[in-house]
Amino acid sequence: MTNTKTDETTIVLRNDNGPVATVILNAPRSRNALSGAMMTALHAVLDDIAADTSIRSVILAANGPVFCAGHDLKEMNSISACDGHAALFAQCSALMMRIVTLPQPVIARVHAMATAAGCQLVASCDLAVAGKAAKFATPGVNIGLFCSTPMVALSRNIARKHAMRMLLTGDAIDADTAWQMGLVSDVATDDDLIIATDDLATRIAERSAMTVKLGKEAFYRQLEMPLSGAYDYASGVMTNNMQKHDAREGIGAFVEKRHPDWRHE
């Protein structure tokens, strides 16, 4: 699926450039809020990418003055039944897990404010490049709705006391602070944000897709294991990795001082 429309009738766009897919939230008038429709569209695009072996890295970006304002509060307030709210939050959790389980690495390109579930979206990505003007906040506490699901991704990215400060105060942090805390992996000038993100995505796409997929899955699985179990699991992953063509090719190319010829298997 490749979509290059720029009007707001398509709320999620996908533009492919070789092995890099850029997925763009395209509802600027609603501040790219994660409405049910937005989450459905984004999840569908990610499912398409997961099945597309020609894509080896993904950039998640947004159009408009806000990266993502989190859940659509008007939509949430219009739902009266508990089951309706439960379904909405379950949909959001499934979307975040789709990012984590995607075979390809996902890089958030954050040019402006990412709040609440929008901050969760950034934290759920494997990497994040923030422009200097970007800001991040989990301000649910200010409106009586604690950012409990954003807390899950946030607390797995940054230290507990940093996470709790963001969650308890709702204060926004700037890009440099987000980098110091570990919420984003890179900070670029606003003028260089697109170039910096594209360069990172392209560099990753040049690696063996098999190796990157295997490594991404292993990274998240071992995080939740006790230390000894993590080593046992990771040893098994490396043993399996070593049997693959690309591992033998990569080691051979290194020894022979040549560029590897990846088969992505």
From TrEMBL:
Which Gene3D superfamilies does this one have? 2-enoyl-CoA Hydratase, Chain A, domain 1 (3.90.226.10), Lyase 2-enoyl-coa Hydratase, Chain A, domain 2 (1.10.12.10)
Q: Which SUPFAM superfamilies does the UniProt entry name for this protein?
A: ClpP/crotonase
Keywords, alphabetical: Fatty acid metabolism, Lipid metabolism, Transit peptide
Q: Which CDD domains match?
A: crotonase-like
PANTHER family per UniProt: ENOYL-COA HYDRATASE DOMAIN-CONTAINING PROTEIN 3, MITOCHONDRIAL, PTHR43602
Which family does the similarity line name? Belongs to the enoyl-CoA hydratase/isomerase family.
Q: What is this protein called?
A: Enoyl-CoA hydratase domain-containing protein 3, mitochondrial
